[in-house]
Amino acid sequence: MTDDGGRTSPVAHGFPHLETVRASLTALFGRLGAEGIGAYATSISRAEAAFGPAEDLHLGAHRVASAVVGALRLPDARMVVSFRPMRDAATVELTAGPEYFVEVNDRFRLHRRDLAAALSHEVTHVLLHRLGLGFADTAANEILTDTAAAFLGSGWLLLDAYREDALSHQKLGYLTPEEFGYVLARRARHFGEDPAPWFSSPQAYEAYLRGRALAGREAHRAPLAGAGAGERRRYARARRTGSAPPRGAAYRFGPGGGGVGDGGLRVSFPCPVCGQWLRVPAGAGALRARCGLCRTVLECDT
After folding, report:
1. Please, what sign has the CA dihedral across residues 270, 274, 278, 282?
2. What are phi and psi of 221, to 5 degrees?
3. Do 26 and 276 meet the contact criterion of CB atoms below 8 Å apart?
4. Which of 28, 62, 152, 275 could cysteine-pair with 40, CB 3.0–4.6 Å?
C-alpha cells in the first residue's frame, strides 16, 4: 500500500477513480451477495484499533492485526507482522494461508495510531485473494482493495489517517480522501451506521462530508422518487424524447416489450446501493423496484 507520509507531492483530491470505485462495489456485492455483505454491518471500533506507546511493539501489533482480521471476518487467518525500512506503508505476501506475512514501514514503530489503518488495506488484500475477487489491472485492483476495506467496515481508519497542514501531509491508500468519504457514506446509508463521530482528523472529517454530499446526490436522482423538482423536469423532457441528457444523467432509455407506460419505453439506472443497473417501465408513475443483486427496494417515479 502506498504511503504518502509527507515526503511526496501534495495529496490528490476529488473523485478521479469514481467509475472504478462504483465497479468495485458492484463486484463486491456480486461476489459476497446481499447476505454476505450483511455480515459486515458493524465496523471495527477505535478501541480495537488503538495501539498505545506503552504496549509491547510486537504483541500490540499482532493484537491490532487480529482485530482487523476479526472485523473482516477472517477468523482462520493469522497475520505475522514485522517492521522494516520501506517506501510503502505495508505489504503482504499472498499465499494459501492460514499464515500471512505482513511487512510494515518502520515508521509505524513510533506512529502507532495509524498501524491499524495500514493493516486494514493489507488484510483486505487477503480477503479478496481468498474470495478470488480482483481486477486484471493492478491500479484498479488497489482501488478495489481500498473500496472493499471502506465498505466492509475497517477502511474508515484509512481515511482517518489522512492529515494535512501547511508543513506536512499524510495519506494512506489509493483512493483520494473524498473517495474514501464517498464509499463510507454509501456504507452508512446501507447499514445505518454513521462514522462521522469517529474521525480524529479534522481533514478526514471534512473529506467525509464532501464524499457524503456526492453519495447523497446519487441517492436522490431521477428516476428515484427522492429526486428534486429540477431533475424531475429534466427527466420528463428526456423521457418524452426517449434519450437521456448528454451530460450528468445516470439513466438511459430503451425499448421494452408489452406496451407498458410510454409505448413500452423502459428506463435503466444504477442501484444507489450496489451499482447494478436496473430496468423498469418508463412513464408508469410511482413504482417500487427491487434490486436483484443487493435486494434493496427502491421507490421510483418513472
Report:
1. negative
2. -125, 155
3. yes
4. 152
Instruction: Indicate the burial class of 252 (C-beta count within 10 angstroms; 0-12, 13-18, 19 or more).
Output: middle
Instruction: Summarize pLDDT for 97-123 with one digit per residue, the tens.
Output: 799 999 999 999 988 999 999 999 999
Distance CA 34, CA 30 (A): 8
Phi-psi region of 36 (alpha: psi -120 to 50; beta: other; left: phi over 0): alpha
Phi, psi for residue 138 in degrees, rounded to 5: -60, -45
pTM of the model: 0.92
Check: CB of residue 151 under 8 Å from CB of residue 22.
no
Q: Are the CB atoms for 157 and 195 separated by under 8 Å?
A: no
Tell which residue, 161, 180, 187, has the closest CA to residue 172: 161
The cell for 7 is: 515526503
How many residues in total does the chain contain?
302
Q: Cis peptide leading into 98, omega within 30 of 0?
A: yes
